[in-house]
Amino acid sequence: MKILFFIIVVLATTTTVNFGKSTPHFLSDDLINFINSKNTTWKAGRNFNINTSDFLTKRISNILPRKEIKHTLPTKIHSVDLEAIPEFFDAREAWPECASVIGDIKDQGACVAGWAFAAVGTIGDRICIHSNATIQMNLSAIDLMTCSNECNYGCTGGLLVEGWYYWSTVGIVTGGKYGTNDGCKPYSIEPCDHYDSETCGIGYAPDCVKVCDEGSSLEYESDLKTGAPYYVVQSEVQMQTEIMTNGPIASSFKVYEDFFLYESGVYQQVTGRYFRREAAKLIGWGVENGVPYWLAVNSWNENWGENGYFRILRGSNECEIETEPLAGIPKF
Ligand SMILES: *[C@@H]1O[C@H](CO)[C@@H](O)[C@H](O)[C@H]1NC(C)=O
Ligand SMILES: *[C@@H]1O[C@H](CO)[C@@H](O)[C@H](O)[C@H]1NC(C)=O
Ligand SMILES: *[C@@H]1O[C@H](CO)[C@@H](O)[C@H](O)[C@H]1NC(C)=O
Ligand SMILES: *[C@@H]1O[C@H](CO)[C@@H](O)[C@H](O)[C@H]1NC(C)=O
């Protein structure tokens, strides 16, 4: 499988709206007002202090040259029963004992770790779902980001597919939120309050250490969780069938400048330059005012979007969210 990063970056810089010479700053009130003046399916608002634009452009959105992934990525093909696919689905309601796991909103801080949170979040949800809620744990994003380093670069970015490959071949230890003693390797990068530019400094990932944090009674090797198989599900109905059958899936998508301003509704790109790919957990779908959407969990804390969630246009591969959704089955 080839990841055509450079081609994607070049093609994606074409914007859908031409502001002429006076392009507003991507976090400005002018851009918020512009989006809200359009008759679109979502509302823009202020999620980020305008002074966090450096943090967003340099940190949350870094794109490094990537190695080509060499792992084969199997495609799962479900036999689809269209009649069985409901109009609305929410994994929290389908598996109520796992609702708090599925709906937990993370904060990646000033670190390009969305891909890692999407992977460990989806895997954690599936551990709960496939164990009939008898096993509940948080998996360590920092372990995945720092130790799966074939194509992943600490706080400067990584590939979702590499996360699944690493999980299925090596395994990932437990680890909860920053500042907790939850698991073997809790997240070590501070949360970022988007409204306060002072707290959004630059996050640095530590080196890979295959030892649990001081104070943890767990042993690294025996805490590793793995699974198999992992696979891609392509097309809207395959994704729906996979979510209904096995739980949330992880998908990467293209982030344009206007996505930072998302406040509520069903997102679709209105304006803005392409930034980079981000990844999120897809936990369900629905229809609002006739507009079909995916229900997604982001890792930009609860102060972003719909309390940390967002909804994005479904069925037309908006921002490539339906291009390479990934999933896998945990082993116990
Ligand atoms: C806005 O969009 C809705 C739904 O597509 C449509 O019914 C309505 O006429 C539009 N309004 C304007 C002012 O374009
Ligand atoms: C942004 O930074 C400038 C210069 O330090 C400061 O004057 C301004 O108040 C800040 N704006 C916000 C919204 O914090
Ligand atoms: C979960 O429940 C199903 C249905 O009762 C059962 O077949 C399966 O073995 C259970 N799985 C675990 C891991 O307990
Ligand atoms: C996972 O993390 C969340 C958020 O910090 C916490 O509420 C929950 O208790 C953790 N789960 C486990 C099993 O420790």
From TrEMBL:
Alphabetic keyword roster: Disulfide bond, Hydrolase, Protease, Signal, Thiol protease, Zymogen
Q: Has the keyword Protease been applied to this entry? A: yes
The cross-references to Gene3D superfamilies, in alphabetical order and at most eight, read: Cysteine proteinases
The leader peptide range reads 1-20
Instruction: Classify the source by domain of life.
Output: Eukaryota
Q: Which family does it belong to?
A: Belongs to the peptidase C1 family.
Please give the name of this protein.
Peptidase C1A papain C-terminal domain-containing protein
